[in-house]
Amino acid sequence: MTEVKLDRVCKYFGETKAVDNVDLQVNDGEFMVLLGPSGCGKTTTLRLIAGLEKPTSGLIFFDGEVVNELEPKDRRVAMVFQDYALYPHMKVFDNIALNLQIRKVPRDEIRRKVLEVAELLGIKHLLERKPGQLSGGEQQRVALGRAIVREPSVFLMDEPLSNLDAALRARMRGELKKLHERLKTTTIYVTHDQVEAMVMADKIAVMKNGKVQQIGTPNEIYSRPANRFVAEFVGSPKMNIFDAGFVIDKNPRLAAGSFDIDIPDSLAEVIKQNASTSELLVGIRPEDILVSTIKREGFIEATTYLIENIGNLSFVTLQIDDVLLVAQTPPSIGLRVGDKAYCKLLVEKLHIFDKKTEQLIV
Ligand SMILES: Nc1ncnc2c1ncn2[C@@H]1O[C@H](COP(=O)(O)OP(=O)(O)O)[C@@H](O)[C@H]1O
Ligand SMILES: [Mg+2]
Questions:
Q1: Cβ 40 under 6 angstroms from ligand 1
Q2: Do 244 and 223 reside in the same domain of the chain?
Q3: According to the model, what pLDDT value does residue 12 have?
Q4: Ligand 1 atom closest to 41 (CA)
Q5: Which ligand 1 atom lies nearest to the CA of residue 190?
Q6: CB-hemisphere CA count at 13 Å for 152?
Q7: Which ligand is nearest to the CA of 162?
Q8: I want to staple 349 with a disulfide (CB 3.0 to 4.6 A). Which of 198, 288, 296, 335 is the partner?
Q9: Does residue 312 sit in the same domain as residue 349?
Q10: Share of the chain above pLDDT 90, in %
Q11: What SS3 class is residue 102?
Q12: Is the CB of 19 under 6 A from ligand 1?
């Protein structure tokens, strides 16, 4: 079992800062997800941990020991890639066994281990086939088997499910999670899919432009995003964000042009203390907007702009002058495009960002 730590790690390719001053701690047995858009430095971070790249600066620790100079083979990590990288001419059994064969593990022991892993992954009946005779999901299991059989201290997984169709991807992510619960091996898992990150991770590190934006549990990342980027990247449909001015005359409020949101004094105080100017960005998730078809006290009048019904839920886009807000409603709410609607933004669910820095204020 292994704890992995990155201390101010940078990796530059010429002018490109692929990994820019990353601090990261992955505790023993933890499932850490690196989440971010394409090109943000996830794969490079993983390759640095594997030893396939050397950091430009900074230190990488395994269990408190610096491993910067350790060869990949001496780090006891196993990497699973997006493209599986199976050997097409070799049977599944040998694909899984290869690393043990190279290490001259006795044949009986290899056989025992491969069968054990094949049992765990439900691929025992496939051991005599070649990779070309397997489905995408089966190939992915073989790739996992090859990693597991080495009994690594750390699993490094780079978008391992992204070549599978949606249904299989959903099933495999559940299976991977259960596998982690059984093996309890420290795992660092890369994805650009925020749903995958939310359902699999113990902790998520959100990255952008080589920098870590926030590290936290899925719940922390979702309910208290540290900045605008994280707020918009996690959650679907994404968080509504609009400009508002912070005004205190009679009562403190957020003035969004065509509508105002009254806020309690306590909230106003926090904003006053922490905002760099009175210009704010106000965020609210679709499920935190109440929608009514009839006029109600404290509700804002809007026009129904778009309705997206996904069966058990509807997402209604409401227009209030030039602000569009997506709200989550029951499918039975009975609104049609063009109808008047009334909405209330739950004040205790607002996310308020500094407009200039885009960092969370409260
Ligand atoms: N070997 C390389 N040579 C030059 N640039 C690279 C190399 N590997 C990655 N990069 C660049 O570093 C940045 C981060 O890439 P990568 O880590 O692959 O991102 P991600 O996995 O998040 O999509 C990108 O701008 C990419 O073009
Ligand atoms: Mg990548």
A1: yes
A2: no
A3: 98
A4: 17
A5: 21
A6: 26
A7: 2
A8: 288
A9: yes
A10: 89
A11: helix
A12: no
pLDDT digits (tens, 9 = 90+) for 103-135: 999 999 999 999 999 998 889 999 999 999 999
Q: How far apart are CA 354 and CA 232, in angstroms?
A: 15
What confidence category does residue 182 fall into, taking pLDDT thresholds of 50, 70 and 90? very high
Q: Could you tell me if residue 362 is inside a domain?
A: no
Whether 221 shows a pLDDT value over 90: the answer reads yes
Same domain, 164 and 256: no
Q: Determine the Cα–Cα distance for residues 63 and 115; give it in Å rounded to an integer.
A: 31
By CB atoms closer than 10 A (0-12, 13-18, 19+), residue 285 is: buried
Q: Determine, yes or no, domain membership for 91.
A: yes
- Distance of CA 38 from the midpoint of ligand 1 (Å): 9
- pTM of the shown model: 0.94
One domain, residues 131 and 265:
no
Residues 255, 111 share a domain: no
Q: Distance between CA atoms of 57 and 39, rounded to whole angstroms?
A: 20
6, 10, 12, 13, best to mutate for ligand 1 pocket (most atoms within 8 Å of CB):
13
Domain extent, residue 344, equals 240-354
Residue 328 lies in a domain: yes
Pair (194, 337) in one structural domain:
no
Nearest ligand 1 atom, CA 43: 21
